[in-house]
Structures are given as structure tokens and as C-alpha cells.
Amino acid sequence: MRDGAAGTFVRVSDNELGRFLRLCREAVTPAEVGFPSGTRRRTPGLRRAELATLAGVSVEYVTRLEQGRDRRPSSQVLVALADALRLSAEERVHLHRLTKPTDGSSVCLGASPPARAVRPTVRALLDRLEPTPAVLLNRLSEVLAYTDGYERLAGPVGMLDGAPPNLARFVFTDARARTAYPEWDRVADEQVASLKREPFRADPHIAMLTDELTVVAGLPFAERLETLPGIPKRSGVERLVHPEAGELRLAYEILALPDGDDQRLLVHLPADEATSDALDRLNGRRPGALRAVNG
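^ thats the sequence. predicted structure below, dont judge the formating
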């Protein structure tokens, strides 16, 4: 295991609750909830009035929420909106998080510096994961620690450059990222969603990073910050082009550590036999050291 080293400006609004509700409303088709689709709809998904009807609230109140003029709906209203929008459990958790006070009236994680210390048991866990590519990240996507397997995977690509290395910065500010990730747009979406897991404007550390990336990366970052909900995928498959091993298909799992750690563990496994063989060669291991998780 190794430790990591300890455009045009576009100002985005801090109305994350309203933005999230609008995106979810536009993602629900009328047919899904029993409304006629019609042929003259100018709004994708549900109209505000239709959501209000389903949730049992006034259309004026839905408008106030989406415009950011009311940011503290009651639990009953949140449940009604979540039911009407058919939100998943993870989306409901995110909706609740977006209603947390952002005026400093309560103690929140955002007031504390991002965690950079690694607990001994987490270090031991990373050691046990060898030769699996695994990396420990904090809420700023800073690289805190990683396995040798991750270093052989990410180092030649350039992900571990920087002091400290930061995956969000790499994706948006390093030209090598677009070569490394054939599906760069999807990876960029996930990086922004990860930064927005909490009401990010209430966290001065994340706000500083997002302001920096808005200036340096410009619209590719700023537009995502404005339009994407903050719900990163916990698992999936991504393609990575390695300068020595070629194109790899990597299944990933994101494992959250206890809340007090403010950290998450990202683990990669080969998604097919060709990637399994390539990682074995990269790690100098016998065939089958890292088994493919999909056929």
C-alpha cells in the first residue's frame, strides 16, 4: 500500500434542492403515473401542476421549492414528493440531505476539513486487497492511499500526479484523461455527482474546489454542476486505456467507510477474461490472480 501526497467563469446557483426536484420531475413520464401524454406538451416529463396533484400540495408550493424560495419542506411534504416522483431509496436519502440547513445554524460535516488521515485498520484492509487495484478517497476526491495494484493501473495514466492527487482534477484538467477514458463524458458525470453528494455550497472545501474547476475547466464542468443530481453510482463498469496493458474493462464498487471517516474505498476488478489476463501481466502474477467478475 502506498500513501498519496498529504475557461470562462460561470457562477452556479446554490439551489440544489430545487434543481433536483425539477430534474426528477422531468424524468417521470405522464404515462408512468396515469396522466395522458398528449401531443402538445412543451415540458419533458411531468408539469408542475401534475406533480402538485400527485403529491397533494399546491402548484404554487412546488414552484416555490423549485425556484429556491422555500428550502425547508416538512418531512410529510418530502415523503409525498418522493412518492409522486417514484424516487429510489438512494434518491430519497439525497432529497433529505438537500434540506439540511445551509446557514450555519447546525453543525455539519462541511465545517470540518476533509479527512486525510488513514486509520490503521483501513491501511491493513488495503494491504489485504493486493493485487486488486483499490484506492481510498475523501469527499474532495483526493487520493489518500492505494494498493500497489492501483499504482500500476493508475500511475502510468497520470492519475497519481499532483500533491495530493485528485481524481476530479485529473478528469477535468488533465488532457490525458480524455485518452485514458474512452467514455469520458460518463466518467465526468460521475465525478461531479460525487462532489455533489451533500449540499456542496454549504461545504466551503467542496465549494472552493468546484469554483476552481469551474474556472479552469469551464463549461464541461460548470454545465454538469448546474444540471446533474448528486447521486453517484456505487457500482458499474468503466473502460480505461492503459499505455502498457491496452484497453481494460473494469468493474468497480464504491464502499463507504463510517461517516466519521468521511472517506470511501474504490475497488476495481476485471470485468472480462481479457482484462483479467492483462491485469495479471501488469501485476506480474500467475494467471487467475484476479478473476473476472463477468463472463
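The chain has 13 helices and six strands.
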